[in-house]
Amino acid sequence: MKINDIKLVKTIYGKNDTYPPPLSGEYAFVGRSNVGKSTLLNILMNRNMAKVSKKPGKTRSINFYLINNKFYFVDLPGYGYAKASISERERWKKIIENYFKSRKWNIKILFVLIDGRHELQKNDKVLIEWLKSLEIPFCVVLTKMDKLKNSERKGSVKYYQNILKEFGEYIIIPYSSVTKEGVEEILELIETFGGV
Ligand SMILES: Nc1nc2c(ncn2[C@@H]2O[C@H](COP(=O)(O)OP(=O)(O)OP(=O)(O)O)[C@@H](O)[C@H]2O)c(=O)[nH]1
Ligand SMILES: [Mg+2]
């Protein structure tokens, strides 16, 4: 995949903002706050465009990056950080609900990022069930694999293979922004869905 051109074309803060034209589809990235969505996007785009932070809750809006004037990468706000107030959680739910409702049909594949060091969290499970009921195609990216020892790594992948079986057949990609493992696989997957 060759990315020649990237533009941040749209930022959505609430339901009064309008979405960009569908073009040839979009690839969205969702997951808990701090799991590494913006970092992964920057690696895929080969440019530091998405803001990254050690503190959770950095991305508060939905950001549409137009790639090669053809399709979009969509950086979604993270959920589930401890300090989020109830109103912030409600805001997240509303903004994501509106996104799914408005763009479901345009999503080629959605990448659900999960921190490979931890067991499946309640809100990740809720999200996966939600995606399933909406019939949104998704795969799972296990992030921060560099922080695991070799033996723990195998355990983590196996654990997620087993647990996801409950929901159906899903691709699981172990990934690390440090070692870049999994990046090629993610790009290949995007390519198979028609992204260039
Ligand atoms: N070791 C390691 N650190 C990572 C990896 N991916 C992301 N990080 C770090 O995790 C922190 C959070 O990354 P972000 O990309 O901002 O996370 P996010 O999911 O966009 O977070 P929100 O915008 O708050 O939803 C940063 O300090 C990153 O450098 C990884 O694979 N390995
Ligand atoms: Mg972010």
TrEMBL record:
InterPro entries per record: G_ENGB_dom, GTP-bd, GTP-bd_ribosome_bio_YsxC, P-loop_NTPase, Small_GTP-bd
Necessary cofactors: Mg(2+)
Alphabetical UniProt keywords: Cell cycle, Cell division, GTP-binding, Magnesium, Metal-binding, Nucleotide-binding, Septation
Zinc-finger recorded as keyword: no
Start and end residues of each EngB-type G domain: 23-196
SUPFAM superfamilies: P-loop containing nucleoside triphosphate hydrolases
Family: Belongs to the TRAFAC class TrmE-Era-EngA-EngB-Septin-like GTPase superfamily. EngB GTPase family.
Protein role: Necessary for normal cell division and for the maintenance of normal septation.
Protein name: Probable GTP-binding protein EngB
Source organism of the structure: Thermosipho ferrireducens
Lineage, opening ranks: Bacteria, Thermotogati, Thermotogota, Thermotogae, Thermotogales
